[in-house]
Design goal:
The protein is of the alpha/beta class and about 280 residues long. Helices cover about 35% and strands about 25% of the residues. It is built from ten helices and 14 strands.
């Protein structure tokens, strides 16, 4: 049976990559769940990612369907030698994908303050031995120093944990962590440009952008992903974030499944909607 399941896993992953028809996600959810081991070690571009069969978004990672539209966009956008920032890297899957795009001459800077996620990554990896991977046990925000970070039991199953100035989870596990602005971090490490900045960090997106004013002003950031929730309570934050990015020369885009972009007006999005918006720089 294990041989059969391994063959099914390989076939399903190939099918998901090469036959972009409707229903692939349902197959990964059902047949993919049956074919997967309880824990699967996915080796990808020198990184081993530990995946749990019973976590839905982990199954999408197993079969190459996680954030399909964003990854297809990045395959079009990122080239060998480029620089990507991956705050809130969680279990390291996106970092592994990014490393395959920028290659050993590029740089992937991963930031993860959660001790739970760090333990999961370090159990199977030594980031210092992966060419191009720079792992930082810290968070990015609007200040440099130390802050309280709320780890949670849900950080691996739902990707949820937060800095103290963003959210206060009921199941929080407080830990003190290092934090930095993007501007300070880039100055310390001699980073002159960021080709892709991912901001999906549990309501710390705006503080992180406020900590990047120098890099934004000099046009040193090319493309930014911002996870955006359109609910009434988020409107003031969203408005400030949209103004900041537009004033820095960025325009917002919806990302199709194949990775192509179409201009959008985020102010017109319906309440309750959530989307990873790609902001691309159009000036300078």
């Amino acid at each position: 049976m294990s041989v059969l399941k391994k063959a099914v896993r390989g076939s399903l992953r190939w099918f998901a990559h090469h036959v972009p028809i409707r229903g692939r996600h349902r197959l990964a959810d059902s047949i993919g769940h049956w074919a997967a081991d309880p824990q699967t070690k996915l080796e990808l571009n020198g990184v081993v990612v530990e995946l749990d069969r019973d976590i839905q978004f982990h199954r999408m990672m197993m079969y190459g369907l996680y954030e399909e539209n964003i990854l297809n966009y990045l395959r079009r956008h990122l080239k060998p030698g480029m620089v990507a920032f991956d705050p809130g890297c969680n279990i390291g899957y996106l970092a592994a994908e990014l490393l395959g795009m920028v290659g050993p001459t590029g740089q992937v800077w991963s930031f993860e303050p959660s001790p739970t996620c760090q333990a999961r990554i370090f159990r199977l990896n030594d980031p210092d031995k992966v060419p191009g991977w720079h792992f930082q046990a810290m968070a990015l925000t609007d200040r440099t120093g130390r802050m309280t970070f709320y780890d949670t039991p849900r950080v691996v199953t739902h990707g949820y944990a937060a800095l103290e100035n963003a959210q206060t989870p009921n199941d929080r596990i407080p830990v003190e962590v290092e934090v930095s602005t993007i501007d300070d971090f880039c100055l310390r490490h001699g980073i002159e440009r960021i080709d892709f900045l991912k901001l999906d960090i549990e309501e710390s997106e705006l503080p992180a952008l406020k900590g990047a004013t120098r890099m934004l002003a000099k046009g040193a950031i090319r493309s930014i992903l911002v996870e955006t929730s359109f609910d009434p309570g988020s409107s003031p934050v969203n408005e400030e974030l949209f103004r900041l990015l537009r004033s820095a020369g960025f325009r917002p885009h919806h990302v199709h499944r194949d990775g192509t972009l179409v201009l959008m007006e985020p102010e017109r999005m319906p309440e309750g909607h959530k989307e990873d918006i790609i902001w691309e720089r159009t000036t300078g």
